[in-house]
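User: Quick one: structure for sequence A, then sequence B.

Assistant: Sequence A:
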Amino acid sequence: MGDEPDVVERAVPARAGVLELGCGAGRVTHPLLRRGFTVTAVDESPHMLERVHGARTVCSPIEALELDERFDVVLLGSFLVHAGVPDVRQGLLRACRRHVADDGCVLIQREGEDWHENVPRDREIPGGLVRVVSDVPVRPGVRSVHVEYVFPDTRWTQTFLSCPLTPEAFERALAEAGLAVDAYLTDDRTWVRALPLDGRP
């Protein structure tokens, strides 16, 4: 699970209601539930959601999500903010803004400074391994990243486009969606707490 549940627990009120966008198979969902959070888990893959237990689940693309409620915490992890298409990135951030309470916050995981260097590399997670296999440029400002998730009983692979963002570009994208950085939560500045700006984007 990495340090994601620890970051969330330190950054938000205990037992807060969390909207987790792009939950996958519940790698972060389940630890958050064990820590007393109420989680609504969103993913566009019904196969991933079948592996999520104990949380309310919603099958939807993040950009199209329209729940008639707001949440204490909206969580956008897995470096999704680095979507290779700017319109997709803005769709993700606008979904965050639509669903965060006026006194709530959005927690966003962004790439570290060396994310696209030192490849291949491995990172241990409970019960398995995440391996960044390749990371190559495909057009100016966009890279193709291939990742393997290795467990004793299965192996998943994922290839996605990633757009590296300077801190200035990242904060500008937030502002365009009606959000502003409140704090960088980790020493490597990969986790950010953002607050809703007055008014809607």
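Sequence B:
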Amino acid sequence: MTVITALLSALLGGVLVMAGDYVRHRVERRQDVVNNLVEASAHLSSVYNRLCGELIDAAERAVPAGDVPAMDPVRYEASTRFFMTPGSEEIGTEAARLIRAYERMRSTYGRSGSWEAAREEHYSSVRAFEGAVRGVRRRGHI
């Protein structure tokens, strides 16, 4: 009887260890997905904020529209990386809004009323995107 009890205990212990490993690996995988999304989001936000910052700086220095630096092709890389990252569809609307805000700033550069509205749109889109990313991060899963 002792042998059977020991065998059952070892078997039950092994099953519990395997179940614990499965749960731990699943949690780690989910956390990796979140971390990858946060990293891609931070890169996207940084690129577009830098581009918008360049426009704002140029406007403050009264640089003529024709002399404003060309758009940086790195934005395509950042966008592709973000939208290819699993989970991006959850916050894709906010990311697209951030991208459109930059495009609007670029197209309205030098036009006073439209420019100010575009700047405000940029600021609110940044806050919305960062809030969405923080929400995913806080929740801990996609």
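The chain is about 85% helix and 0% strand. The mean pLDDT is 90.

User: Thanks, that's what I needed.
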